[in-house]
Amino acid sequence: MSWNNNDLPGGFVVPPMPTAPPPAPTDGLRAVAVAVLNLSGLGLGYALMRRWGLMAVCWVATALLLVVALPADPDGVPGAAVVLYPVLLGLAAVHGGFLGLRTRLLWPPRAWLAIALGVVLLAVPAGGVVLYGDARDRATEAMLLERLERADKLVRESGKQSFTTAESDYRRALAAYRGLRDDHPGSKAADRVPDRLKTFYSTVGSPYAQKNYCDAIAPLKYLRTVPGTMGRKQLGSLSTWPDDRLATSLYECASEALGRGDADWTTHFGDLLSTFPRSGPAGKVEPAVSAEVDRAVKQVGGSDPCSAVEHLRSLSTQVTALPGDDAGVTAALGRDADRADTNADSGTYACGVRQYKDKRFGDALTTMNEFVKSNPHAKNRARAQKIAIAAEVAQTVPAAGRSLPTTASGGSIAVTVKNDSPDDITVMYTGPVTGSFSLKACGSCTTYSFTSTILSGFSPCHDSGKNYPQRTIRLPVGTTYFVHKSRTGTGKSPASDTAKLRPGYIYTECAYMTSLNY
Questions:
Q1: Which uninterrupted H or E stretch holds 112?
Q2: In the chain, where the domains are located
Q3: What are phi and psi of 54, to 5 degrees?
Q4: Under CATH, which architecture does the 408-515 domain have?
């Protein structure tokens, strides 16, 4: 007799054991509890249903998020993690809720207790978000303060260099300050920007504090552009901080350049009169110019009148170009320019005298001719004409320039000058007296060959058959230097003669022309 283990005496049969616990009755509250528990990010809903693998997936996802997010960074969590992690939590909540609908929990015995536990545990991710936000804010503040310090360092280091070298770094620092103030208002770094801007201005404008006025002009001009980027209202009193300093620097630098004779004084005075026409320094421009004209006028009578004359001419031109309308000084500056020009004209005579005494006969000739032309009523005009003649004679006969000619004329000795050349000529002479005159060409005269002039018996101006143009002048006893030069025709080089005049003699000067033809 045999029997099956499932058969029991008396005809009873034991049913086969189930392969899994039978599903629990559908319970919506339990499903909600599992979903809420999974939202904590720890997979606790899966844990209470013995779904350990799924719970591990939740733990791994949360751990990966922590690795990516920590330590807190000002830029926050990467965008991909911000999107994927909430999606994963949502899927875990939906999936866990679906499973929990028919699956009993290990604990707690009541679904509403599980819901309460899940709600409490939601404080974990919520608190984590809050704590992470605080940590991120601290990291952001630290980053902003570090950025502020870098800008401060740029300013400190730039203050040790010239503005030309440091300008780009100043601009970088200012851009950093502006970014902190505009992009991160309310931050500790932004709150410190106003004080930093004060330091920025004082550092950029430090040449002014050191009284290096010329060096201060460029940085102060730059500071006047800062309100255009930082905002005049935001800068407050700093927006006008450079104005008085720049006006003073322009005046002081221009005054120094004016005294040295440097040309750039007009640029600085021009900027001052245009930009700050009603400022105190602008009011001192015309007196400074007037004083410089006075100084140059006095120098005309000094050891270097030519430089003084040149300076006066430059002053006249430069002063005329100054923009005095807005400052109300155009008329006064015009009078200064006229005075400089007038004294330059009269000073030309002193310059020509100095040039003559220095044996610069060509320069003296040019200068005296200019003086004669520009000053028809000057008291020294007649002597200037004499000096010009003597200078031209001395160019050919340097000995003629030993002494400065006077305005004396006439003498006891007659000297007849004849023209034995086919050209109109000018005859100039200097010595005890100085003068010049012209003679017409000799119509029947020709050029002598060089050979004929060195032969014995050569005697120009002695052909009785010719009517030589001539003129007789009276000269004092002493040495007179003659130069005659062609005014028309072929004569190129002036000829000269030195006559030592003595009483009791009759003198004849003959002008003739030679050529190299043999």
A1: helix 111-121
A2: 28-121, 247-388, 408-515
A3: -65, -35
A4: Sandwich (2.60)
- CA 213 to chain centroid, in Å, comes to 15
Provide the b/e sequence for 147-182 (b: ≥16 CB within 10 Å): bbeebbebbeebbeeebeebbebbeebbebbbbbbe
Contacts of 120 (CB under 8 A, 6+ apart): none
| C-alpha angle 218-219-224 in degrees, rounded to nearest 5 | 100
More confident residue, 423 or 111: 423
Which strand (E) or helix (H) includes residue 499? strand 495-501
Cα(210)–Cα(216) distance, rounded to whole angstroms?
A: 9
Backbone angle region of 457, left / alpha / beta, with phi > 0 → left and psi within -120 to 50 → alpha: left
- 261-298 confidence digits (pLDDT tens): 887 899 999 999 999 999 999 999 999 999 999 999 99
Confidence of residue 128 (pLDDT cuts 50, 70, 90): low
Q: Is a pLDDT exceeding 60 seen at residue 3?
A: no
Distance (Å, whole) CA 458 – CA 236: 99
Please give the Cα distance from 180 to 126 (Å, whole number). Answer: 30
Phi and psi, residue 71, nearest 5°: -70, 160
pLDDT, the chain, mean: 86
Q: Give the helix ranges, DSSP H, for 231-329.
A: 232-235, 241-260, 265-275, 280-283, 285-300, 305-320
